[in-house]
Amino acid sequence: MAQRAEGFVEAVLAVVADIPPGTVATYGDVAAILGSRGARAVGQVMARYGSDVPWWRVVRAGGHPPAGKAEPARAHYEAEGTPLLPAAGEDGYRIDLAARRWIP
DNA sequence: CATTTGACTGCGT
DNA sequence: AACGCAGCCAAAT
């Protein structure tokens, strides 16, 4: 059952599931919580297993949404009341990490 | 067991 | 502010 090399996967999903609504955490922070610096490894898990967790609450260190998922993610942020910052132009945006960065 | 890949990060240009 | 390059981690093949 739940026992394999997936221990890391389970841990990542658990942390993401713990992120409260309207709040976000960076990949690097999630990795740090797990005791690792594999921000990319976290992203890899999200790409494979993130479909069952609020993946939109996990963003990049620069405040940008997950690559390729910016549009659906934006809808979730507005629905949950996550403060977004307008980017230079229009279609671009970034998360207000300074105000909504989740720190356990 | 070695190689490739990827929803990343930080620094330099 | 935007783009490119190099570095690090774990899973998948």
Could you characterize what this model shows?
There is one protein chain. By secondary structure, the chain is mainly α. The chain has a single domain (2-100), classed as Orthogonal Bundle (Arc Repressor Mutant, subunit A), CATH 1.10.10.10. It has five helices and four strands, in the order αβααβαββα. Strands 1-2 form a two-stranded parallel ribbon. Strands 3-4 form a two-stranded antiparallel sheet. β3 and β4 (93-95) form a beta hairpin. α2 (27-33) crosses α3 (39-49). The longest helix has 12 residues, at 7-18. The protein is globular. The termini are far apart. It binds a DNA duplex (13 and 13 nucleotides) through α2, α3 and β2.
Question: What characterizes the major β-sheet?
Answer: 2 strands, parallel
Instruction: Indicate the CATH architecture.
Output: Orthogonal Bundle
What is the total tally of β strands? 4
Please state the overall shape, judged from the principal axes of the Cα atoms.
globular
Q: Report the helical percentage.
A: 40-55%
Whole-number tally of structural domains: 1
The end-to-end span amounts to: 29 Å
Integer-rounded radius of gyration: 13 Å
- Kindly provide the name of the CATH class: Mainly Alpha
What's the CATH H-level superfamily name?
Answer: Winged helix-like DNA-binding domain superfamily/Winged helix DNA-binding domain
Q: How much β-strand is present in the residues?
A: 5-15%
Class derived from helix and strand content: mainly alpha
